[in-house]
Amino acid sequence: MSLPIDFTLNGRPCHAVAPPHWTVLELLRDGLALTGTKDGCGEGVCGACTVLLDGEPIRACLVLAARLAARSLLTIEGLEGESLDPLQEAFVDLGAAQCGFCTPAMILSARALLAVNPAPTALEVREALAGNLCRCTGYAKIIQAVLAVATRHGEPCGSRPST
Questions:
Q1: For domain 3-79, which CATH number applies: 3.10.20.30, 3.20.20.150, 3.80.10.10, 1.20.1180.10?
Q2: What is the mean pLDDT of each run of 10 residues along the chain (163 residues)?
Q3: pTM of the predicted model, to two decimals?
Q4: Is domain 86-150 in CATH 1.10.150.120, yes or no?
Q5: Which of 11, 78, 94, 109 has the highest count of CB atoms within 10 angstroms of its CB?
Q6: Cβ(9)–Cβ(75) under 8 Å?
């Protein structure tokens, strides 16, 4: 038996059908073929599966897909556009991504932080990213990238330059 789930995915209405035991991670990767959300530990420890549910970071491996009903979900694919999101741009420019496995979750966690605190301190960035593990970078460049976006004047997080 499968359940119908109507929700907003990356700013667009989405109708999905999933078995009742599926997590958000399974729905995204197996049901909707959105593979930007990574399957790390499957236990909510590594943070690689972080997505934003109603603007708040969640571990997609821990939340049942049925909980998405009538809610809004943002994945890394939702940042697609003609140009990179400011956080993506900063990660590239400052070398904050190496293997890239943790990058989608880091960017979405940072986006959630900057939405509520557009001028965080380095400590606040560290705290916001604390649940996301990275084996490659040592976090310094990731924190620098988030702070670089936070310090841009007149360009709120998530905005794209006019063309």
A1: 3.10.20.30
A2: 98 98 99 98 97 99 99 97 94 94 98 97 97 90 97 54 44
A3: 0.91
A4: yes
A5: 109
A6: yes
